[in-house]
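lol forgot to send this yesterday, sorry. struct tokens for the thing we talked abt
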């Protein structure tokens, strides 16, 4: 399998995230990709290639121009008032306490565009997420050209980013950028299967009123898991998108017997949609020893995940999302990639 890799991810390196009342070292850090890349490089099925440059255009197909302008300049504006440290908001919009305007102050803008306090903007964040978008669009192009599955080895993850909102370690939604890029190159129907432990709220929201993208997600029940406010089973899509959003939340502790059934359901729905292209948001934070998640998949279960995915007989654009047990990331991801077709 082709693996699109870029070094620039390293430029996004947050010092800490706010969790349980204190700053803790970021779970989402460059060691994740370092460990994963070393492992994949040792596997004969993985063939590394570099990303090409596509610039802002494919990003602007998904995200608002004003949001991209904010991301590009946020850190520079932050250090003028806060000094050389990561930018994190301290104030948010409360329900019913906002008429729609965007404040001019950097603190106000951080609160306007952010959804949580766990997603620091650092000096290199904008460079890193642009490079990750390039890797994604390169991978989509390689899927089209080669008719084979391609893995975009990127970080930070993307599936919590909405068209004008960041959070959950995510700034740009790479699954959405990849799906839109397929549509812009002739696909009529694209399915996105999100198997990260956390619900892909950003991806869902971006495509919620559209029928040209089917979004299917298996994740921890949001009533007691991040992202809390979306991911429930009664979210079916709206307008033209009604019937094209499928959430399969599972209770904490789900192991293969439960997870495998949900995956079969997800795959049946996707097969039924008969997409031209398939994007997989691959998080391996469903692993039993993930430090921030609560499913119980074992390393050998990821081979079963891949084998199930192989039933969808389409080349896949596979995007790396979550997975925070740095030591076991490589083997878990490789077990999916080796078997998924
Ligand atoms: C991103 B992805 C732990 C609290 C949870 C946000 C989790 C974002 C996960 N620090 N904070 O879906 O893997
Ligand atoms: Zn996750």
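and heres what i got for the seq, position by position
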């Amino acid at each position: 399998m082709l693996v699109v890799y870029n070094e620039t991810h390293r430029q996004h390196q947050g010092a800490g995230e706010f969790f349980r009342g204190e700053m803790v070292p970021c779970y989402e850090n460059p060691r994740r990709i370092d460990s994963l890349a070393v492992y994949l490089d040792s596997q004969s099925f993985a063939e590394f290639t570099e990303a090409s440059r596509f610039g802002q255009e494919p990003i602007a197909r998904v995200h608002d121009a004003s949001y991209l302008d904010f991301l590009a300049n946020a850190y520079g504006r932050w250090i003028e008032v806060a000094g050389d440290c990561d930018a994190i908001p301290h104030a948010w919009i409360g329900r019913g306490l906002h008429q729609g305007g965007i404040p001019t102050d950097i603190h106000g803008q951080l609160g306007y565009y952010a959804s949580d306090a766990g997603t620091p903007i650092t000096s290199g964040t904008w460079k890193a997420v642009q490079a990750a978008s390039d890797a994604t669009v390169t991978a989509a192009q390689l899927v089209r050209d080669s008719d084979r599955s391609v893995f975009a080895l990127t970080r930070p993850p993307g599936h919590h980013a909405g068209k004008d909102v960041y959070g959950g370690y995510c700034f740009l939604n790479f699954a959405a950028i990849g799906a839109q890029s397929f549509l812009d190159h002739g696909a009529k129907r694209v399915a996105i299967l999100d198997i990260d432990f956390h619900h892909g709220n950003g991806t869902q929201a971006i495509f919620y009123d559209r029928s040209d993208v089917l979004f299917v997600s298996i994740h921890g029940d949001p009533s007691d898991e991040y992202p809390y406010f979306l991911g429930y089973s009664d979210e079916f899509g709206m307008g033209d998108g009604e019937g094209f959003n499928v959430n399969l939340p599972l209770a904490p502790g789900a192991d293969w017997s439960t997870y495998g059934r949900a995956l079969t359901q997800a795959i049946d729905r996707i097969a039924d949609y008969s997409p031209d292209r398939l994007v997989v948001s691959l998080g391996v934070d469903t692993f039993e020893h993930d430090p921030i998640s609560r499913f119980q998949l074992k390393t050998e279960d990821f081979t079963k995940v891949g084998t199930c995915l192989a039933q969808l007989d389409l080349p896949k654009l596979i995007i790396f999302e979550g997975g925070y047990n740095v030591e076991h990331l490589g083997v878990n991801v490789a077990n999916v990639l080796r078997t998924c077709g």
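Residues 196-198, 283, 285, 321-322 surround zinc ion (ligand 2) (CB under 6 Å). anyway ping me if u want another try
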